[in-house]
Amino acid sequence: MDKTYLPDLISGLEQELLRLGYTKGSMTFYRRRWNQLMAYAEDRGECYYTEQLGMDFLKEFFGITQEDFSRTLPQAETQEIRVIRMVGDFQLHHAVLRRYLKHKEILTIPLFVDIRSRFQSSCEKKGYSQVTTEHYVKQSSYLMDYLAAQGMDDFTAVTLDTVNTYIRTLAGFSYKAVEQHICSLRVFCRFLYQEGIMPDDLAAKMPMVKARKQTAIPSVWTHEELKQLVGACRWRAAPMRRSRWRYLKYRRRTGKRSAWRSRRITRWIWMTG
User: Fold this and answer.
1) Which of 127, 75, 63, 68 is nearest to 100 (CA)?
2) N or C: which end of the chain has fewer CB within 10 A?
3) Total structural domains in the chain?
4) Distance (Å, rounded) from C-alpha 238 to C-alpha 206?
5) Co-location of 86 and 128 in the same domain
């Protein structure tokens, strides 16, 4: 990884935040912290950002140590960590990695906005559920936002290496989250190729992620296992209130048996011990 002179790195990060539409108040807070970081690095005789520099800065100014990361921190301390971690993320990926979407609209390039709308219509025409469609569109927007951060305003220069580099920004996410991201990217890349927006079919080149099935119940039961399952429970009528029981006795005496359907309500009672 090529390191950038710390003041130049901070300057580039500021420009990226301005492109993303961060407010004046947020920028003032970030600049104040980053000026403190640059002054701290200068006092130590360091010209580049390192993970150790960031950790020492947090410990020196805010008393936050590596051990504190394993517990739930107050919002103020979490914000301080995010401000410093943002510098390292930008140096590594040249992008601001936002785990939580702060701004509702993240795409500003008209072409990307149009592609997102067309992709959403395509998902709806294919009969995808609303949740699946929203997920695909959201993840594709993250990819296009990453491309914009790399100075790309279309898909002509996008290669498999570009997609793989974006996937590396998901480091720290759960296995399932990465799996869902890659699935969304594959659907989106297939759409771009079919629409003639992307010259190469990157979806066919992307590796398949093996889905993990963490079910404790086997798909096939033996006769002995079924006997143990049934033997672990017993069948009885669901309890009912005394007033309800009196009402049913009255209905039985009057010959109206329609209400007796409620007596068929039963439930499984699992035995323990």
Assistant:
1) 75
2) C
3) 2
4) 54
5) no
pTM: 0.60
CATH number at residue 179: 1.10.150.130
**Residue predicted with more confidence, 252 or 261:** 252
Instruction: For residues 70-91, give the mean pLDDT.
Output: 84
Amino acid, res. 167: I
Task: Residue 41: count other Cβ atoms within 10 Å of its Cβ.
Answer: 20
